[in-house]
Amino acid sequence: MNQGYCFSFSFILQKKNYFDGWKRKEAGDMLIQTYINLTENWQITTPSNAENYKEMNKKLQKLRNESRKKNFNYSLFGRMMTICFLAGYLRYLLLREQKNIKLFSWLSDRDAITNWNDEIYQTFYHIISHCIIASEQGEEYHRIQEVYLENIKEEIFYDEMNRVADYICGTFADFDYTDGSVTGDKQCKMMEDAISSNNYIIGISVEEKGVAQICHSKILRE
To answer: What is the pLDDT of residues 98-145, one digit of tens each?
Structure first.
C-alpha cells in the first residue's frame, strides 16, 4: 500500500449524513419510480439496447411490487443506493483522470445488499454510473468494457483481495477521532504503518451538509 501497487478510497458515513434521506419510505418510492420511468424512456430513445433496458425495467417493477409489502426494508434500500452511487462516482473519477482505462469492474463483497431482491444493486449501479459518466464523456464512454459476475453467490476469485479493503475499513471504523486512539495492536499497526501519511489510502468523511477528506499523520516516536 505504501508503494502504490494499489490504492483505496474509504467513505466514513457519520451518524447524520447526506444519504440518510434515502432510507425513508417516501424517498425510496420516489427513487424506484424514477428509475422505472427512466428505463421505459430509454427503450424508446435507444432502441438498439431496448431489450437490456426492458430487462432492467422488469426487475425494477418487481422491486416496486415488493416495496408495497409491509416488511419492505427501506433502510437496506437506502444503504444499497448509497453504495451504488459511491461506486458509480468513483468509477467516474477514475475514468476522468486516467484516459487509458479500457476495462473496468466493480467486484463487490457478498453481503445483505448483493443478495437482496435478485441482485437488484447491479441494475441501480449500471444506471447511476451510466448517467454520471455518459453526460461527461459522451461517446468516449462506450470504449470502456465492464465485467460483471453472473452469480455472486458462488465462490468468487477475489475474496482474498477484498480482505485488504476490510482491514483498511476496519481500522477507520475502530479509530477514535476524539483522542486518536485504537483498540488493538493490529489497528495501531495499520494506522501507523499503512494509512497515516499515505497518499494511496484516502478516507472521505460524509456528513449531513458536506464531504471532506480525512488526513492522518504518523506519530513521531523517539
So the answer is: 878 888 888 877 788 888 898 899 999 999 988 888 776 666 666 677
DSSP letter string, 1-35:
-TTSSS-EEEEEE-SS-GGGGGGSHHHHHHHHHHH
The SS3 assignment for 91 reads helix
What is the per-residue pLDDT across 150-167, written as a single tens digit (0 to 9) for each? 665 666 777 778 888 888
Alpha helical stretches, state H, 158-208: 159-174, 185-190
* Helix pair angle (25-45, 50-67), 10° resolution: 160
Task: Please state whether the predicted TM-score (pTM) of the whole model is above 0.70.
Answer: yes
Helix (H) or strand (E) holding 37: helix 25-45
According to DSSP, the β-strands at 8-13 and 103-104 are unpaired
Instruction: State how far the alpha carbon of 23 is from the alpha carbons of 18, 77, 132, in Å.
Output: 11, 7, 22
Return phi, psi of residue 12, to 5°. -105, 105
Name which of 111, 123, 112 is nearest 61 in CA terms.
123
